[in-house]
Automatic annotation (TrEMBL):
It comes from the Eukaryota. This is 2-nitropropane dioxygenase. Keywords: Dioxygenase, Flavoprotein, FMN, Oxidoreductase. PANTHER family: 2-NITROPROPANE DIOXYGENASE, 2-NITROPROPANE DIOXYGENASE FAMILY, PUTATIVE-RELATED. InterPro entries: Aldolase_TIM, NMO. The keyword Oxidoreductase applies. One of its GO terms (molecular function) is dioxygenase activity.
Amino acid sequence: MFPHIISPLIVNAPMYGTATAALAAAVTKAGGFGFIGGGFDFTSSSAQLSSLEEQLVKARELLGLKTLPESNGKATDSLPIGVGFLTFHNGDASGLIPLIRRHRPAAVWLFAQAHNQHASLIKDIKLAGDQWNMKVFVQIGSVQSAIEAANDGADVIVVQGADAGGHQFTSNSSIVALLPEVIDVIENLHKEVSILAAGGIMDGRGIAAALALGASGVVMGTRFAATLESEASQATKSVLVSTQDGGISTVKSVIHDSLQGRGDLWPVPYDGRAVICDPYKKVLAGKLSVEQATDLQKKAASEGNTSGMVVWAGAGVGLIRDIESAGAVVERSRAETIRILKYLSKF
């Protein structure tokens, strides 16, 4: 599907605001597949798309690919990275298709539809990228949503389990239960769809486990947030490295968004996993209202106070012990996976 990939396939999640050109290019250079987070506003006047356009130009430069300045930067080759979008507020996609045609990404990632709009959107996206065989990834969190994604025309389904950091389906399970069931159902549909695993994967052990469950590759988010190329703040990276016992230290809740002042951004079916912070504890204990805790969180974030910030992280965060380059994460994780699979092949 992607000629530059070195097996096993390792993808960075398109974390909006965290996964920019530097991270995506580093992952792709290491033989993985890099994604840039593109946001949720697709209108022609979108500041998010303008920022994404800048990042796509930068990614092309970082990868040493040519552009044609006389054609307003139109790419001469497809770009071996992808762009990810949140689709819950997608009412006007007027700016998305022209951007895809200008920059020719190898893939587009969609997540969090609210009104069953993916079927028409995928059709338009595939038409725009047909010249260079662009692929469409759809992130799901249930068997039913996987069936919908396959029927809508997804080329790749990302099965996100409950151990994932950041936003996900409110009602879901770990990939141990969800991934095999999705694979069986998709196989019965007789559709050519690749399936990736996401949620709590931090190293080669997690990758090997996902492959054993039937995945074609994996997506890692939290682990790539804690890299040199990540746009996450130093305070956030400090929390990711220092947090231990991730299953206890993180929690899925809609409160995290409220604490960041965007409680009305995500639709009802979604929540997010983050490290438990002091404002969250005080809301749960009834010591502060959500409004008061929101002010506390904003102050903590502005001051880099790690105990008071909302830091999105998966349940595997306790496995992160240092900040290294994204390329090193890909290469080390790949080597670990191969070593484990070779060992297991003896039995």
